[in-house]
Amino acid sequence: MAVILPIVLGITDLSTYLAGLALIILLPGPNSLYVVSVAARRGPRTAYRAAAGVVCGDAVLMALSAGGVASLLNASPVLFAVVKFAGAGYLTWLAVGMLRGARALWRRRPGSAGAAMESAHASMESADAAKGSAEGERPYRRALIISLLNPKAILFFISFFVQFVDPDYAHPALSFLALGAWAQLFSITYLSVLIFSGTYLAATLRRRRRLRAGLSAAAGTAFLGFAAKLSLSSAG
Length: 236
Known about the structure:
- It is found in: Cell membrane.
- This protein is mostly helical.
- It is 84% helix and 0% strand.
């Protein structure tokens, strides 16, 4: 059955596709970095909201790719530039917020009263996390926007998927659907590993203020790098 299914769905080389997909998903990007950040700060339940945003965003991009939007972006430099700089601007805005938070955390003076208050509130953090996330950060929406404002992802999906679709197959939409389902399965598995890794580190980060600040600054710097890379990219 494992051999017949790829042929039926018009997929020419499933094993090569899966190997390439695994390598691509393991590359760090703004989506996975944001999910790890939410997991460390808010816990697994809230992190899965961010993961859902990533999955939904990728599903939309895959559908747009199969529908021909990638060709439109390739053909219209102006449209590509608009989407590209919107995505880069949003990533920069997120990075600035992370860097400002890291600076404030680093400069906080560890006095006895502050330490006592931080210790007293430590047990309340878990209960307040879901409320704070829902009212302020909205991780699902933020992860969804990060995914959607990435024109290179649309171009990647179409250029990568098309290599494994039999051109003589009568229903290429089914081929794209099957390839997309594999991509989402890999992505969900990988994000789950990141979420529980981030949760494992959460207790340490809560106790170590400067370590938390350093990691937040590193994440913000990485997001600036993603923004710069996106803004310098081309449709080709």
